[in-house]
């Protein structure tokens, strides 16, 4: 069975500082990995996804994530955050052998940016 | 602009009442989904539909019902059997059901119980 763990429920950082949001998954088969962002009272928006190929994935708004198969991780990073990055971030995993209806979402990490 | 719309933004339910949440997409996507979001939790799948006139239960379907009479529309009814309906409800769609598909989300409906 698949699962995904976001290790930090909240991450406070100062503006212009770097940030890393951690995500670990478990799956016995090949996986697809996603990061979504949710701004207050809105739906989710895709930041980036890993399907295959290069393990470093670049997304929108300057975010990137690295797929590490040996550590079963897919951490999200940004070198310098802005106030507008304040949001909740969700990591998600789906199995290459199942359907999109079986995607598993993590419990989310709330990123708060301090001026 | 293509996208997903959900209405209403806020919905109040009285005890014993059924309420219906609307979801419409103009992305020409075949698959549609309903999720429930509670504070501090990830999204949980209620129902999904791969094509018109077909839908399947997700992980927490009890107390909910759906229909898919048109490709663009996938309304969710929260019935009186759902004893704890207060949550944020998100509708999503994707081109198909393949595991690599990106899901596109609507802005959500917040359901509150009076």
Structure, explained:
Chain A has 115 residues and is mainly β. Chain A has no helices and twelve strands. Chain A has strands spanning 3-5, 10-14, 19-21, 24-26, 31-38, 44-50, 56-58, 64-68, 73-78, 87-95, 104-105, 109-114. In chain A, strands 2, 5, 6, 10, 11 and 12 form a six-stranded mixed beta sheet that branches. In chain A, strand 5 (31-38) and strand 6 (44-50) form a beta hairpin. In chain B, strand 4 (31-37) and strand 5 form a beta hairpin. Chain B is built from no helices and eleven strands. Chain B has strands at residues 4-7, 10-13, 19-25, 31-37, 43-49, 56-57, 64-66, 76-78, 87-94, 104-105, 109-113. In chain B, the strands form two sheets. In chain B, strands 2, 4, 5, 6, 9, 10 and 11 form a seven-stranded mixed beta sheet that branches. Chain B has a four-stranded antiparallel beta sheet with strand order 1-3-8-7, with no helix packed on it. Chain B has 114 residues and is an all-beta fold. The chains are: A mainly beta (115), B mainly beta (114). Chain A binds chain B through residues 4, 9, 32, 34, 36, 41-46, 49, 51, 90, 94-108, and chain B through 4, 6, 31, 33, 40-43, 45, 48, 56, 58, 90, 92, 94, 96-108, 110.
């Amino acid at each position: 069975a698949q699962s995904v763990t976001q290790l930090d429920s909240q991450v406070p950082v100062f503006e212009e500082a770097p940030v890393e949001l951690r995500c670990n998954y478990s799956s016995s088969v090949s996986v697809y990995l996603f990061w979504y962002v949710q701004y207050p009272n809105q739906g989710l928006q895709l930041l980036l996804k890993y399907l295959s190929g290069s393990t470093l994935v670049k997304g929108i708004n300057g975010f990137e994530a690295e797929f590490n198969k040996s550590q079963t991780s897919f951490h999200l990073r940004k070198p310098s955050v802005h106030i507008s990055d304040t949001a909740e971030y969700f990591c998600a995993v789906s199995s290459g052998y199942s359907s999109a209806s079986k995607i598993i979402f993590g419990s989310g990490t709330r990123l708060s940016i301090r001026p | 602009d293509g996208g997903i719309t959900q209405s209403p933004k806020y919905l109040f339910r009285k005890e014993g009442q059924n309420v219906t949440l609307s979801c419409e997409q103009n992305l020409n996507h075949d698959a549609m989904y309903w999720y429930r979001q509670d504070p501090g939790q990830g999204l949980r799948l209620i129902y999904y539909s791969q094509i018109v006139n077909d839908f399947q239960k997700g992980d927490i379907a009890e107390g909910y019902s759906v229909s898919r009479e048109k490709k663009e529309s996938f309304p969710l009814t929260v019935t009186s059997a759902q004893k704890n309906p207060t949550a944020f409800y998100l509708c999503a769609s994707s081109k198909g059901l393949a595991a690599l598909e990106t899901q596109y989300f609507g802005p959500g409906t917040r359901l509150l119980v009076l």
